Amino acid sequence: MSSLPYDDPAGVTAPRLSVTQITRIHPPVPARYDQHTITRAPAHDPVRARQVVNELSTVAGVLEELDPVRRRDLGHPRVPADLDYVAVGCWGTAVQITDPAFGENGITYNLDDAFDAQVKEHPDARILGVCEMGFSETYAKYLVHVPGVPRVGADGWDDMDLTGDPAQTLRAIGATAGEPGSADVSLDDLEGFIWSDYLDVLACGLHVPFVSEQLRVSVFKVTRSEDVQDAIEEVWHQD
């Protein structure tokens, strides 16, 4: 993550690019933000962020809380010390957690347990789990919980194995692929399905940062249990 203190600048991590995050949208669900309306999103709540990070199954304890930073300024883990940091944004009814412990490599599965823990604790929220890891090829996993309908899941390298019905989740939130509010989502060709567009509809426009947005997140240096630390090292560290 850029702009974070590095304890070991000589180390490197395996993926070139990564997205490892869980987003929760609690009721009442806001209208989908765009590059203009994002300026009216609620300010980040650092008190709630502290509560969120302390509840994470991937975190054993918090060692330090850094000053909040802009979400769009968060980078990717570049050195081993970066893997000790978790970012949490709390904007009204939306919560977004970025944690390297959610990372996977197609062999070690870490996102599932963290996602399941979130669903168990917050069954009434929309919950989106995302893992994208850029090795020599890109491994991706997407998990979607929308209350009242079966879970959607997809994972793999070039070919994604899909479970559940993405169209059903859209209907459950009152959206239809190709209609206003979700016009950029097409379910006609699942092999060419653009997951970022789909996830952005479910996340009310908060899936990825807008170029000029000012949303802030809290950043925490954390400790891990031995099991979590082992799983992180298996995914992130090169041999």
Which structural category do the helix and sheet elements fall into? alpha+beta
Can you count the beta strands?
9
Principal-axis shape: globular
Secondary-structure element pattern, one letter each: EHEEEHEEEEHHEH
Average pLDDT taken over every residue: 87
Helix content: 10-25%
Strand content: 25-35%
Number of contiguous helices = 5
What strand order characterises the main sheet?
2-9-3-4-1-5-6-7-8
Distance from first to last alpha carbon: 21 Å
Summarize the biggest pleated sheet. 9 strands, antiparallel
Low-confidence stretches: 1-12
Radius of gyration: 17 Å
Polypeptide structure, described:
The chain is of the alpha+beta class. 20% of the residues lie in helices and 27% in strands. It is built from five helices and nine strands. Strand 5 (126-134) and strand 6 (138-145) form a beta hairpin. Mean pLDDT is 87; it is low at 1-12.
Characteristic key phrases:
disordered N terminus, alpha+beta, 20% helix, 239 residues, globular
Itemize the secondary structure elements and their pairings:
Blueprint: E1 18-25, H1 46-55, E2 61-70, E3 85-91, E4 94-98, H2 111-121, E5 126-134, E6 138-145, E7 152-156, E8 160-163, H3 166-172, H4 195-202, E9 216-223, H5 226-236
Antiparallel strand pairs: 1-4, 1-5, 2-9, 3-4, 3-9, 5-6, 6-7, 7-8
Short description:
By secondary structure, this protein is of the alpha+beta class. It contains 5 helices and 9 strands, in the order E-H-E-E-E-H-E-E-E-E-H-H-E-H.
